[in-house]
Amino acid sequence: MSAADLKNVTSKLESGASDMAHIVLTFDNNKLASALYGQFDENLARLEQKLGVDIRSRGNQLTIKGSSTSAEQARRALDSLYDILQKGADIGQSDVDGAVRMAVAADDQLTLPTLERKGKVSAAQISTRKKTIYARSLNQDAYMRALERSELVFGIGPAGTGKTYLAVAHAAMLLERGMVERIILSRPAVEAGERLGFLPGDMKEKVDPYLRPLYDALYDMMPGDKVERAIAAGIIEIAPLAFMRGRTLAHAAVILDEAQNTTQMQMKMFLTRLGENSRMIVTGDPTQIDLPQNTRSGLVEALRVLDGVPGIVTVRFNDTDVVRHPLVAEIVRAYDRDGKVARGLGVEG
Question: 203 or 20, which is more confident?
Fold first, then answer.
C-alpha cells in the first residue's frame, strides 16, 4: 500500500500511440478523494492545465490520459497531495502547484545506483503542533533539508519564494521540540538609532512594523496566545541589528531577514554572534538593496567570502520557486529582464 493509500494503480500504453499512457487510480477513502479533487474538481482541472493531461473522475476512481511523461507526473502529484490529506492537512491551489513542480522535477532526479526514475515524490516538511508545511519546489526542498542539518544557512532569492516563512517555521519547530531555548528575530531595516527615534513607543512597538512578515509566519506556526507569552517572557526576542554587538547567541534559532541591507561590518558582526547549540538563518535578495549608493551589501560580500566554507550552506531561489500569486513570478522575471537591459546599457540595475 503506497503513502497515497491507492487501492489499485494500473498503467498501460494505448494502442496506436506509443507515447500515450492511460493510468487508473482508485482511492480507498471517498472523503479524502473528494478533498483531493477539490470543489467542482478544481484541483483536477488545475493539474490538467499545468501538465496537459486529461483527468476524468468517477466516484473514488480517476483516469489519467496523456503523454507517458505527463501522465506519470500527474500520478506523482496526485499521490503526493493525497499523502498530505492523509496526514490531516488541507490542500489548496498553491499545494497543487507545488505538487506539480515537485513531480516535474522528479524526472530530473535519478536514484543511484540503478539510475531508475523515482516513482514517488517525497517532499521535505516542517511540522509544528499547529501546522505542517511541505516543500513546493526543488529549491524549497533543498532549503528545508539544509535547515535540518546545518548551523548556518543562507536563503537567497526574490520575494515570494518562501525563504523567510520557512526560516521562521523551522525556528518555531526547533523551539517547540526543545532543540533551542529561544528565537531571535533581527532585521537591518531599522539599524540606525535615528530611524527608530521617528517611531513612537517602546522598542517592540518601534520595530514591529519592520518585522511583521516574521510575526505573520510565527502566528501561522504557533497559537497566538503562545506567541504573545513567549515574546513577553523573552523566549521570542526582537533584536534590532544595531543592538546585537557584543552578544553571544547560544541555544537559539537566530534569523536575520532582509540581509541585503546590511553593511559589511554589520554582517560580520552578526555572523560572529553564533554561539553554542545555535542555528543561524540569513535571508535576503541581492537584487533589492536599499543601501546608500557606493555602500557594498554585507550579504553580497558574505556570500563571496564564505563560499566553500564547510558547514555553511547557501540555497539560491529563483522565479520558478515563487509560491505566491502567479503574477508575482512574472513581475520578478520582468524586473530581472529590465535589470539586465539596464546593466547592458551601462546603467546600474
Answer: 20
User: What pLDDT shows up at residue 87?
Assistant: 84
Residue 306's closest CA among 270, 263, 255, 271? 271
- Residue 163's region, left for phi above 0, alpha for psi from -120 to 50, else beta, is alpha
- Alpha-carbon distance of 221 to 50, in angstroms, equals 30
Q: How many Cα atoms within 13 Å fall on the side-chain side of residue 140?
A: 30
Cell 535615528 -> residue: 194
Q: Kindly give, in sequence order, each residue whose CB lies less than 8 Å from that of residue 100, ignoring residues fewer than 6 positions away.
A: 47, 50, 51, 73, 77
- pTM of the model as a whole: 0.73
Q: How far apart are CA 41 and CA 35, in angstroms?
A: 9
pLDDT, one tens digit per residue, over 38-93 is 998 999 999 999 899 999 998 889 999 999 889 999 999 999 899 889 888 888 88
Positive or negative, the Cα torsion across 149, 153, 159, 165? positive
